Amino acid sequence: MDEWKALPRIDRASDDALWKRFSSARTAYTRRRKAHFAEQSEKRESAKVVKQRLVKEAEALARSREWGPTASTYRDLMRQWKAAGPAPRDVEDTLWTRFRAAQDTFFGARDEAMAAQDSEFAANAEAKEKLLVEAEALLPVTDVAAAKRAIRDLSERWDTIGKVPRDKIRPLEDRMRAVEQEIRGLEEEQWRKSDPEKSARADDMVAKLEQAIGKVESDLEKARANGDQKKIADLEENLASRRAFLEMAQRASADYSG
After folding, report:
1. Is the whole-model pTM more than 0.90?
2. Would you say 128 and 158 are in contact if contact means Cβ atoms under 8 Å apart?
3. Phi and psi of 65, rounded to 5°?
């Protein structure tokens, strides 16, 4: 527009025609610009309403001592805050300051409470460390029944001690679980080997294989007496295979009987 005004006039008809085109383009742009900023303003006003509500909810929770549920609620409020978009500049910073202050009040109090709790539970961690020394001394297990009785007693004492600091929970629990699993695994292995049904099946397999081998040996003697080379070769191969199976079955039977 500044450049247009600075230019010299031309004949009226041409000047009017060009001005009409120029003005029309300028009007179209201005109309779209106003619509755009009106839409942006409407969105910012909507965001302002949403964020005002979120601030009130956040401030209402600031003194809560329901640590877990309230922390989860604050995370949800933060998601809503981000989804709302920006509010008008004159209120955005003020609303955010209030929203953040409410969160800081809650999480600061939670951290202090957790720190105090961890200090209180430190003695429990030391007691559980001592129990772990006893538990880990059970390994390697030489007497499954005795180890099982000992770990049961240690587990009861472990539960009686109570909670430990948060950063100690996983390391201590993992060490105790490792001992328990080792003993449980040996107990299950012992049961597997002493399972009456499996032991009976293994013994039955040995008996059947021995009976079958006896028959093959008898047939082999006859084939050798008759000089039947083909049959001799087939029976010798059959016999070797059955003896290999018998050896495996005998080992399994020995495991169960042991």
Report:
1. no
2. yes
3. -120, 15
Contact 165, 122 (CB under 8 A): yes
Q: 166 vs 65, 73, 116, 215, CA distance in Å?
A: 18, 22, 12, 70
End-to-end CA distance of the chain: 105
Query: How would residue 250 be classed by pLDDT, with cut points 50, 70 and 90?
Result: confident
Q: How far apart are CA 172 and CA 129, in angstroms?
A: 7
| 16: number of Cβ within 10 Å | 10
Q: Does the pLDDT value for residue 99 go beyond 80?
A: yes
Residue for token digits 């604050």? 74
Q: Which of 149, 138, 145, 146 is nearest to 176 (CA)?
A: 138
Residues with Cβ < 8 Å from 67, sequence gap 6 or more? 110, 113, 114
Token pair 């297990």 is found at 141
Residue whose token pair is 């969105």: 43
Percentages helix, strand, coil for the chain (3-state, rounded to 5) are 90, 0, 10
pLDDT digits (tens, 9 = 90+) for 108-158: 999 999 888 888 899 999 999 999 999 999 999 989 899 999 999 999 999
pLDDT confidence of residue 126:
93
Q: How far is CA 82 from CA 48, 50, 148, in A?
A: 12, 11, 55
Q: pLDDT by residue (tens digit) across 19-54?
A: 999 999 999 998 999 888 778 888 999 999 999 999
